[in-house]
Amino acid sequence: xxxxxxxxxxxxxxxxxxxxxxxxxxxxxxxxxxxxxxxxxxxxxxxxxxxxxxxxxxxxxxxxxxxxxxxxxxxxxxxxxxxxxxxxxxxxxxxxxxxxxxxxxxxxxxxxxxxxxxxxxxxxxxxxxxxxxxxxxxxxxxxxxxxxxxxxxxxxxxxxxxxxxxxxxxxxxxxxxxxxxxxxxxxxxxxxxxxxxxxxxxxxxxxxxxxxxxxxxxxxxxxxxxxxxxxxxxxxxxxxxxxxxxxxxxxxxxxxxxxxxxxxxxxxxxxxxxxxxxxxxxxxxxxxx
Length: 289
What we know:
Blueprint: E1 3-7, H1 21-33, E2 38-41, H2 53-66, E3 72-76, H3 82-94, E4 99-102, H4 114-127, E5 132-136, H5 138-141, H6 147-153, E6 159-164, H7 169-178, E7 183-186, H8 192-198, E8 202-204, H9 212-223, H10 227-259, H11 276-287
């Protein structure tokens, strides 16, 4: 898994609130045409905790319809119980996911130890028909995963890598060093260039949902040895990441997608839409004003 992956938003019908597969397919087609290496369905940007299991299946199937043979379809299947995570993982694989992204179960976070988490991830991997990526997203789970925990999982044949959305470059470097055989992907577009310098394979970054060509170009310039050009692109990406993705979350990403002619639309309650002033600010940022 190399390159830039877009953690695609989940469009909702404005009248019914249901998942809207048509706009989802069209968004995916546009992002793939811009060169992303794959699509992540049911991630944090996709409002995963607010989706029913059946809706995740609809989303996976919709993206599968438009995916090329050389692109990856990754589904977020993390849940609060091992049983539920396994069920979501097996369903996603049956619907065409090439890999799954599994966060730690954070609700009872204080009750978990490294040993219980290792047991959880191993059980999911044992039951998964497809490779899994461990997903470190302490902003939402409040359960940061140590590099030493990844080392305990490194021998499992179906655990292929990790996405680090801690936003901490030192943590990303520790992950890269701890599991040299794994794919390590940055979860923050602000760290995409530093991640590549560390030897990471790329990133799953929210900015790729509305500025995919910019993110893809950074990786291409870096691979071609054009470090100055890649660094200049990184400087353009940072405000998009910090002001839209990090500050405003899924609602901000959806507003940015609306601003560039993709389908963003409403978030699902209880999430709130961005304010009119924030929407104007988002539009200005994506225009480069």
